[in-house]
Design brief:
mainly alpha, 193 residues, two-stranded parallel ribbon, elongated
């Protein structure tokens, strides 16, 4: 595992291009993994590598969430194949939970927004937006998720997160990430991501 950091994407690409040309992989049939923040970035990296080398083949571009989950699955034997709070599944869990929130004061603004949604379109769009935010929190704000899991926060986001993660405690990205870090030589403290 090589982690290359920079605040300039051009420098990162140059380093990757150089590394790929200097160090052939252990097997020509094993793909190189390049973790990228978005599908658009994956496409750009692939096009730039092809432009520099004439071809860009046998490269995989997992997003951070799927990479972390797969790494965790490879190291731990008790995880499901798919993250139960991955973006797609989380969208549908939020979609299903929204109608149940009507009687709680913390969710008044959400219920008011959805009050004229007869076809469920606004509900789906809102569920998708909330799921996207929660997905980003899992990656960029794990300490917030940990606090919510511990019972802190009484705003609608904290309450909704606890409702969504009920029944899967310890089996979502933030709860799982500490275990592989310990296996890989971490200190056992909560990671700073």
């Amino acid at each position: 595992l090589s982690i290359i950091r920079s605040n300039r994407v051009e420098w990162l690409l140059s380093g990757l291009a150089q590394r790929l040309s200097d160090e052939p992989g252990s097997s020509p049939f094993a793909p190189e993994l390049v973790v990228v923040p978005s599908p658009a970035m994956a496409r750009w990296v692939n096009l730039e590598l092809a432009r520099r080398h004439g071809v860009a083949a046998n490269l995989e571009y997992p997003l951070p969430a799927s990479f972390v989950w797969q790494l965790s699955r490879d190291l731990l034997d008790d995880l499901p194949e798919q993250d139960p709070l991955s973006l797609d599944l989380l969208t549908w869990r939020v979609f299903g939970a929204l109608p149940e929130l009507g009687g709680e004061a913390a969710f008044a603004s959400l219920c008011h927004y959805l009050s004229d949604d007869r076809q469920g379109l606004k509900r789906f769009q809102l569920a998708n937006r909330i799921a996207d935010v929660f997905d980003r929190y899992q990656l960029y704000r794990p300490e917030l998720i940990r606090r919510w899991e511990a019972g802190a926060g009484d705003d609608w986001q904290a309450l909704l997160w606890r409702r969504l993660s009920r029944g899967i405690k310890g089996r979502h990205r933030v709860a799982v990430i500490d275990r592989p870090l310990q296996i890989l030589g971490g200190s056992g403290d909560a990671p700073v991501l």
